[in-house]
């Protein structure tokens, strides 16, 4: 199943621009006061949750705690993935303060509602300087049992091998860079794969052989490609996600600035296929360097019997 109607989101307690992640995240800014950042992020978070629920998505909201301070807790998809066979994977994180997000209390709250068969903790790779930040690093095509991964300081071939052995997926690696030639820190900034649509910034893949191979892999799997530009990528147009409503209707979630950057033709390609949940998350994108997709951890786990 490529999409889910149930997701996890973490409500921020002390959101701000994380100085430990900015060296590898060119999208981050740090120009807003800490108190204002938290106030804005909280309002944006609540509005986004409301929009997703309006579109029929079930959102499990868990409040972050003030201590320990986890400024990026609003992006849970990087440290956890929750699979249909009952497996939960925990991932190695590059920034030391992001490792604190792997929170047993969050996991216990998930277990209270959903059936968890096994927790696979890959965080030990941190001890040897290898990081692989969940569905920020990996774009899953569950129907094809494939993961798409771009090379960066936050992706690891060794960790990817361990993930593949655990869930039985193949991996497709490629290089993706921003307009200045710096590696894209997370694959989900430049790429989204849904049931029938794939949004990709093809110009960020400068090796033509890699670009052609990616196009071939996506078209062979039945995807229509929406090619976005660097300008659209910089407005987080690659950072969208396809979900589904409780009734099985497709829902595309993305930020308002991402939506505004799309051409009328691209907007029509998405809106004619799915309901659109628009997230007003300007502060979160500006300070966190992540967007609407980063805020969502999909839950494919089966629910506990009542």
TrEMBL record:
InterPro entries: Amdntrnsf_FN0238. Transmembrane segments: none annotated. PANTHER family: AMIDINOTRANSFERASE. This is Amidinotransferase. It comes from Pseudogulbenkiania ferrooxidans 2002.
């Amino acid at each position: 199943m490529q999409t889910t109607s149930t997701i996890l989101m973490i409500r921020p307690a002390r959101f701000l621009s994380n100085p430990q992640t900015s060296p590898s995240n060119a999208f981050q800014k740090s120009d807003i006061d800490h108190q204002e950042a938290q106030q804005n992020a909280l309002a944006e978070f609540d509005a986004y949750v409301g929009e997703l629920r309006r579109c029929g998505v079930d959102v499990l909201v868990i409040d972050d705690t003030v201590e320990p301070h986890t400024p990026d807790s609003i992006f849970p998809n990087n440290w956890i993935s929750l699979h249909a066979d009952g497996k939960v994977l925990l991932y190695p994180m590059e920034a030391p303060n992001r490792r604190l997000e792997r929170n047993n209390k969050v996991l216990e709250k998930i277990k209270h509602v959903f059936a968890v068969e096994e927790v696979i903790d890959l965080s030990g790779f941190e001890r040897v300087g290898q990081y692989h930040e969940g569905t920020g690093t990996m774009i899953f095509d569950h129907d094809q049992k494939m993961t798409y991964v771009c090379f960066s300081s936050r992706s690891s071939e060794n960790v990817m091998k361990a993930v593949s052995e655990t869930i039985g997926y193949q991996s497709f690696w490629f290089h993706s860079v921003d307009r200045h030639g710096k590696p894209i820190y997370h694959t989900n900034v430049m790429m989204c794969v849904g049931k029938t649509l794939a949004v990709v910034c093809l110009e960020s893949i400068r090796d033509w052989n890699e670009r052609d191979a990616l196009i071939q892999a996506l078209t062979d799997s039945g995807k229509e490609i929406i090619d976005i530009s660097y300008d659209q990528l910089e407005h987080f147009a690659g950072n969208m996600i396809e979900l589904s409503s409780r009734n099985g209707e497709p829902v595309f979630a993305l930020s308002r600035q991402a939506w505004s950057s799309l051409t009328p033709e691209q907007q029509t390609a998405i809106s004619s296929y799915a309901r659109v949940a628009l997230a007003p998350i300007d502060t979160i994108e500006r300070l966190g360097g992540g967007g609407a997709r980063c805020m969502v951890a999909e839950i494919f786990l089966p629910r506990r019997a009542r």
